[in-house]
Amino acid sequence: MTNPRVAELVELLQLERLEDNLFRGASRDIGTKYVFGGQVLGQALSAAQRTVDGTRAAHSLHAYFLRAGNIESPIVYSVERTRDGSSFSSRRVVAIQHGQTILNCAVSFQIDEPGMEHQSTMPDVPKPEDLAPAQPLPAEELAKLPVKMQRWLGLDGPFEFRYVWPRDELHPAKRPAWQHIWFRLVDRIDDGDELQRALLAYASDFHFIGTALLPHGVSYLTPDLHMASLDHALWFHRPFRVDDWLLYACDSPTAQGARGLVRGQLFNRDGVLVASTAQEGLIRLRRV
Fold first, then answer.
1. Which CATH number is 240's domain given?
2. pTM
3. Which one of 49, 204, 276, 279 is the catalytic residue?
4. Which of 97, 205, 252, 276 is catalytic?
């Protein structure tokens, strides 16, 4: 692992243990106004995993975002060891900042055991090698945006994204409410499955709720648009690596009441369904 951005992200997900069930994580400014939701998800999962023995792996996570996080301050994660059964373990994680809860999260773990198997078929899309890398905005257009937004739009983050259908976020056209995105960590890591799951939880929040914007001809750069994640669910199905290409197949079946619902399936390059996601987000557009 030589890429400094990847090393920084891995360190971000390796929390400081304060007591048996209490952890502290730093916050990182990636250009968002508040703490990136994927960071809180990944850290909450990391905290829960630290309280379960290595024979049980996380298979599902259900979280509610209650308040926006402050980028300048660390976050404390309190883990409740709800239950340890013969096959499953359950953990409740509360993320706290400045004495207030910013996220509630439940994580379920299971021992490895065999069972019936089937899965959805991966969409028929080009391989990541056949797609062009994401292109930066023209310098003159980038200079018009706030400094924090310029950092968010930078291409030197820990993940590389390749879009099957690239979109001009400055001039978004209306299109169906689904998208396919290949992504991977830009450097190889040697750490185990727990870190892989935390990294996937982090990455699963990128570009997700934006799927609900596609039919409406707006983007996160549209003036007077306010977006926020309300909840996030994640199911781990099969082993994977985030330092190899994963396809994120997202769709939005509905938007109403200033909320949009999105669903996602994550496939490895061999077509194996490794994880599924769902999220509802706040979408308010105030036209002057």
1. 2.40.160.210
2. 0.93
3. 279
4. 205
Residues of the domain holding 16: 4-112+131-285
Number of structural domains the chain divides into? 1
Q: Is residue 122 part of a domain?
A: no
Contact 48, 105 (CB under 8 A): yes
In a domain? residue 97: yes
What ranges make up the beta strands (E) of the chain?
16-19, 22-25, 56-65, 75-84, 88-97, 100-111, 159-163, 178-185, 225-229, 231-236, 246-256, 259-268, 273-285
pLDDT tens digits, one per residue of 255-266? 999 999 999 999
Would you say 62 and 71 are in contact if contact means Cβ atoms under 8 Å apart?
Answer: no
- In this predicted structure, what is the pLDDT of residue 156? 72
CA–CA distance, 98 with 96 (Å, rounded to integer): 7
DSSP 3-state percent helix, strand, coil across the chain (nearest 5): 20, 40, 45
pLDDT digits over 64-112, tens only?
Answer: 999 999 999 999 999 999 999 999 999 999 999 999 999 999 999 999 9
Is 205 one of the catalytic residues? yes
Active site (annotated) includes residue 46: no
Kindly state whether residue 13 falls inside one of the protein's structural domains: yes
Residue 208 domain flag: yes
Active-site residue (options: 39, 108, 204, 229) = 229
Q: Is there a catalytic annotation at residue 27?
A: no
